[in-house]
Design goal:
The complex is a heterodimer of chains A (343) and B (104). Chain A has helices at 17-28, 44-48, 66-77, 165-174, 194-205, 301-319, 334-340, and strands spanning 6-7, 10-13, 33-37, 54-55, 64-65, 83-86, 90-95, 101-105, 110-113, 115-118, 124-127, 143-144, 157-161, 180-185, 210-222, 225-233, 238-242, 245-248, 252-255, 266-267, 270-272, 285-287, 292-293. Chain A has two domains: 6-126 and 253-340, 3-Layer(bba) Sandwich (FAD/NAD(P)-binding domain), CATH 3.50.50; 129-250, 3-Layer(bba) Sandwich (FAD/NAD(P)-binding domain). A seven-stranded mixed sheet of chain A has the order 12-18-13-14-15-16-17. A five-stranded parallel sheet of chain A has the order 6-3-2-10-22, covered by helices on one side. In chain A, helix 1 (17-28) runs parallel beside helix 3, helix 1 crosses helix 6 (301-319) and helix 4 crosses helix 5. Chain A has 343 residues and is of the alpha/beta class. Chain A starts with 5 loop residues before the first strand and ends with a helix. Chain B has 104 residues and is an alpha+beta fold. Chain B has one domain: Roll (Ubiquitin-like (UB roll)). Chain B contains three helices and five strands. In chain B, strands 2-1-5-3-4 form a five-stranded mixed sheet. The radius of gyration of chain B is 12 Å and the shape is globular. Classes of the chains: A alpha/beta (343), B alpha+beta (104). The interface between A and B is medium-sized, with 23 and 20 residues.
């Protein structure tokens, strides 16, 4: 079935701080943006890696946390009503007959736009996979890094690996429908909501689940069907736990993904751009923020903001080829005040 | 200049200049060795995971709760596992030897 494409001015890949601020700069010029991000929230690394860490080098903000920066940017871009398409990865890029870009995501969303902006940081966040020999054969059949359908786990013997909120939440969520369930974590301390930890310990106490302190060293099974997992316990003994589902939570990692196949000029996984407009080797595709490179590039959020402003100026010419660009300041322009919703 | 010894994932040992005041991660990254250090050194990931030679382990400060929590998302964590961004190099650590943990 053909999906009706979303027609817009700019599709921004990556909803980190730089992608968010690009919405502002584009919005001032009257350009509409849609954003795609593989995370389930906006903010990129600021929200995922260091929401509580202080940032001291944002101009005029002496200190704010990663999450505060994201919250403030969201407030700042609200007048421009950006649309977010989360938990999906930008996948396929092609040209339409009219010369616009057609972008498809892993969730099947389709966009048509004259301008693509890659603000993907160090790539999209994807689950970190287990580096065990043969693990790939089980992936998607009996070894999972996310739960897509809870029913895949019904009446199964499940082992959950990890010590954070994801691991704890899923243990508690799946316990009622599992035939058997166990949790394995490398130490007897959990970085998760204290209530979840208490509930998990109560289940262990009640004999409704097992808890192993140790690390997974091997997987056993055949034809993609897991039969047992080998665990080396903290005391150094090897145990073998019979199970047919393994749900592993080792956090997220960043990888460039399908963007690498788009024929852009890449240098060590970074996208080469010019410094006039931060345009890539392909006209009307721009790259801003940590993912772009040029002589003198510094990976600073504030540099990404600047890159977004110059990108928007050039993007205007692609999006509004029949209009003349006028440079205006937010302090004085009634036109900009209207767009900002303060007129 | 005091030295730092780093064994890469192929088992090759590299002699690096130990810049006092730099983190071990920064010293390894500056030398061009493959250490991802995704978060840039703010103890928010585990991609600068190294194994510290046992005789040096005791001379380091104990890992903090934050470092330990980040090590939870690493693989093949051992008694000697540390995050290189959390080890501040000082002249007394001249000669320290670490091994890069597997990447995944």
């Amino acid at each position: 079935m053909a999906v009706e494409p979303i027609r817009t001015d700019i599709v921004i890949i990556g909803a980190g701080p730089v992608g968010l601020f690009a919405v502002f700069e584009a919005g001032l010029l009257g350009l509409e943006c849609h954003l795609v991000d593989n995370l389930d929230k906006v903010g990129g690394q600021c929200a995922e890696l260091y929401p509580d860490k202080p940032i001291y080098d944002i101009p005029a903000i002496p200190v704010c946390t990663g999450q505060e920066l994201v919250d403030r940017l969201m407030e700042q871009i609200r007048p421009f009503r950006p649309t977010f398409h989360l938990q999906q990865q930008a996948e396929k890029l092609s040209r339409t007959a009219e010369g616009r870009w057609r972008l498809e995501t892993s969730a099947g969303t389709v966009f048509e736009a004259p301008v693509i902006v890659i603000a993907a940081g160090a790539g999209s966040f994807v689950p970190r996979k287990m580096p065990l020999p043969g693990a790939e054969a089980f992936e998607g059949r009996s070894l999972f890094y996310v739960v897509r359908r809870r029913d895949d786990f019904r009446d199964r013997r499940i082992l959950v690996a990890g010590g954070g909120d994801s691991a704890l939440d899923w243990v508690l969520n799946l316990e009622p429908i599992a035939r058997e369930i166990a949790l394995v974590h490398r130490r007897d301390e959990f970085r998760a909501a204290p209530d979840s930890v208490a509930r998990m310990r109560a289940l262990v106490e009640a004999g409704r689940m097992k808890l192993f302190i140790g690390q997974i060293t091997g997987l056993e099974g055949r034809d993609g069907e897991l039969e047992a997992v080998r665990i080396r316990t903290a005391e150094g003994t090897e145990i073998r736990y019979g199970c047919d589902r393994l749900l592993a939570f080792y956090g997220l990692k960043m990888e460039l993904g399908p963007i690498a196949e788009w024929g852009l000029n890449l240098e060590r996984n970074l996208i080469r751009v010019d410094t006039e407009a931060f345009e890539t080797s392909v006209p009307s595709i721009f790259a801003i923020g940590d993912i772009c490179t040029y002589p003198g590039k510094l990976k600073l959020i504030l540099c990404g903001f600047h890159e977004g402003a110059l990108m928007a100026r050039r993007a205007f010419d692609y999006c509004r080829p029949n209009e003349k660009f006028v440079f205006r300041y937010t302090t004085s322009s009634t036109e900009l005040h209207k767009r900002l919703g303060v007129a | 200049m005091p030295k730092v010894y780093v064994v890469d994932r192929e088992g090759v040992e590299h002699e690096l200049e130990g810049q006092p005041g730099w983190s071990l991660m920064e010293i390894i990254r500056e030398a061009g060795l493959p250490i991802e250090a995704a978060c840039g050194g703010c103890c928010a990931c585990a991609t600068c995971h190294v194994y510290v030679d046992a005789e040096w382990l005791g001379r380091l400060e104990e890992p903090g709760e934050e470092e330990n929590a980040m090590l939870d998302s690493a693989f093949e964590v051992r008694e000697t596992s540390r995050l290189a961004c959390q080890i501040r190099f000082r002249p007394e650590l001249a000669g320290i030897r670490v091994t890069l943990a597997p990447e995944f």
